[in-house]
Amino acid sequence: MFAQIPASMTRPKADGAPRIIAVANQKGGVGKTTTAINLATALAACDKRVLIIDIDSQGNASTGLGIDRSARSVTSYDLFVGRAKAGDAAIPTAIPNLSLVASAVDLAGAEIELVDMDRREFRLKDALGGLTGRFDYVLIDCPPALGLTTLNALVAADAVLVPLQCEFYALEGLSHLVRTIERVKRAFNPRLDIQGVVLTMYDKRNNLSDQVAADVRAHFGEKVYRTMIPRNVRVSEAPSFGKPVLLYDMACRGSQAYIHLAGEVLKREGRVPA
Ligand SMILES: Nc1ncnc2c1ncn2[C@@H]1O[C@H](COP(=O)(O)OP(=O)(O)OP(=O)(O)O)[C@@H](O)[C@H]1O
Ligand SMILES: [Mg+2]
Question: Which of 75, 159, 240, 260 is the most exposed place for a label (fewest CB within 10 A)?
Fold first, then answer.
């Protein structure tokens, strides 16, 4: 069903370690969780072994994948406090090849607890050790903030994927995110790069969407994926059924866009030197 994605685009990392991608934007409601869930599902459907780590106390990625609170015994909070490694906290989802480290409400306090911890910027990175050979991709669904939890994700990641909503204020605050990425790169994680910027909730009937898309492309150039995720009611309905939209309605425009996005992501990954 993913015939659009040639096998040559899906080669794994040579050393067997997973590629870690943080899905981040401190702006709320721009499509981070929707992108993490559906990109992960599309990658899993391409035979990639994928792990989503939900580090947002809202737990939307966990709920959106149908993981009930009662099933969340070991969570990403345990990763931050050093009680568990990601490999032990990963639980299978209903989607073949897709696992999840769920979030817990305790994460809301983690920002403050982390301040006094040793290696406070490296807690998540340390917990991600030992995944070699188990997963091809790890996607981290970040909260809408640039605090210590998101900072941990940027320190642990190989790359950042930035969802941007096609709305008037899309670029506002983005320079802060870019500066934060540059700072993390200098201070903690020299390999960090922006994998790409994905425009979400694009509405072709709305001139503003085109204007925003043009501005973002002028600003970020090649970094912006060609695929734009359309505003699509099926995408917004799917989480209430605990399903990625790709499972809820594979034929809808939102699902098709995420399949194309996965193709672009894998193509860019193929260019990354091993
Ligand atoms: N392409 C789309 N079409 C329609 N609705 C969408 C689309 N993408 C996301 N939404 C809806 O927009 C809302 C915000 O999306 P989402 O939760 O993915 O954003 P977020 O950036 O993770 O939010 P937060 O910052 O709160 O974590 C959700 O209700 C979601 O269902
Ligand atoms: Mg979210």
Answer: 240
